Amino acid sequence: MSVVPLPIDQRAAELREQLANAQHEYYVLDRPALSDAEYDRLFRELQAIEQAHPTLRTEDSPTLRVGAPVQSAFQTHRHLVRMLSLDNAFDDAELLAFEQSIERVVGASVHKSGYTVELKIDGAAIALTYRDGVLVTGTTRGDGTEGEDVTVNIRTIRGVPLRLLGDGHPPLMEIRGEVYMPFAGFEAMNEARVAAGEPVFVNPRNAAAGALRQLDPSITAQRPLRFFGYAAVLPDGNAPVRSQWDLLEQLTAWGIPVAPHRERCHTMADVSVWAHTVEHQTRAQLGFAIDGGVVKVNDMSLQDELGVRNDRTPRWAIARKFAPDMAVTKLIRIDVSV
Ligand code: NAD
Predict the structure, then answer these.
(1) What would the DSSP string read from start to end of 218-271?
(2) C-alpha distances in angstroms, 39 versus 118, 179, 253, 333?
(3) Which of 72, 186, 192, 274 falls between 20 and 30 A from 200, CA-CA?
(4) Which pLDDT belongs to residue 329?
């Protein structure tokens, strides 16, 4: 029996519905029904349709959204500056296309700036508000504009400093990063849950996101959560320093854990070599889940010039996504069979 393809407007509507459901299951329920690879495939298909037929892009399209609107018992908290998502590159050709899109705006300056490359931690994004160096609020990303105020839970996470090291801190600053659960803690927690007859968690990302939203902070405190920082913003939208590399150094000096294996790359060829090494060598030894690397234009004045696309993704950064992690796939198989 041959399958008759749907007219393009119907296919777009079908994809919007599938993706909106998947976003709800992933961001709100912490229970994804699709694999990330399948989600990314459907997302790209809808993006391609919308690009070819702009009139089919509706205002509520999942391709224009960061995360999902907050729906929980927590108070909401407005971020100082909008939190964004990232566009994806799945191979070296897409990395080169990313560089060309930058050159079209800022020309050869990007070659002087180079790139900072970082691990893409597969966890849940949070924003930490510090007043004069003291932690006052911890918030989930939510829909990018406002998230859930989960301060009581964030205070239980080892590695999140309640007070930054050093002095002379900005009066108000948001430090952003990823809460994650290392594999060892995830496995031990699931084994304990099996022994207690409780349902197991599907993967470390969903376990971390779920733990952040516990109503009882003593439960969050028992979950083996960790944190890596990668961004800081002041109320005027600027970072406290002028390059991404210096920012990671500054975060480290303040006592914020920063992910290992970051590098400064001068060319996109160097970025490709780094990404290849991380995917095929480093990843298996990390002890926590990553789903790629993040490539950021190092110079923040160029970042400002490049700006944001569709209120959703910065033009100066891209996620170089990797193939699904065999370690995570294996964990999921074990969990499903328990
Ligand atoms: P993303 O994961 O594609 O990229 C943006 C996020 O990366 C940031 O918000 C931040 O949390 C994170 N990040 C980790 N390390 C970082 C670093 N060093 N620097 C900057 N950011 C870093 O973003 P997204 O918008 O949360 O989600 C889209 C992705 O989530 C999809 O590509 C898919 O993999 C997954 N997803 C899956 C389903 C599903 O049903 N399986 C549904 C929705 C989303």
Answers:
(1) HHHHHS--EEEEEEEE-TTS--SSSBHHHHHHHHHHTT----SS-EEESSHHHH
(2) 23, 22, 38, 19
(3) 72
(4) 54
Distance between CA atoms of residues 123 and 138, nearest Å: 15
**Distance between CA atoms of residues 186 and 286, nearest Å:** 14
The whole-number pLDDT of residue 338 equals 33
pTM: 0.93
* 240/231 Cα distance (integer angstroms): 10
CB 332 within 8 A of CB 202: yes
CA nearest neighbour of 325 among 141, 128, 119, 137: 119
Ordered structural domains, the chain, with CATH: 8-64 (1.10.287.610), 76-337 (3.30.470.30)
Give me the active site residues, please. 120
Single-letter amino acid, residue 309: R
- Which residues contact ligand 1 via a Cβ below 6 A? 22-23, 25-26, 32, 34-36, 39-40, 66, 85-86, 118, 120-121, 125, 141, 178, 230, 294, 319
pLDDT in tens, 117-142: 999 999 999 999 999 999 999 999 99
Backbone angle region of 141, left / alpha / beta, with phi > 0 → left and psi within -120 to 50 → alpha? alpha
Bridge partner residues of 313 (DSSP): 309
- 236 known member of a binding site: no
Low-confidence ranges of the chain (pLDDT < 50): 333-338
At 326 the pLDDT is 63
Q: Which of 18, 107, 71, 37 is nearest to 299 (CA)?
A: 107
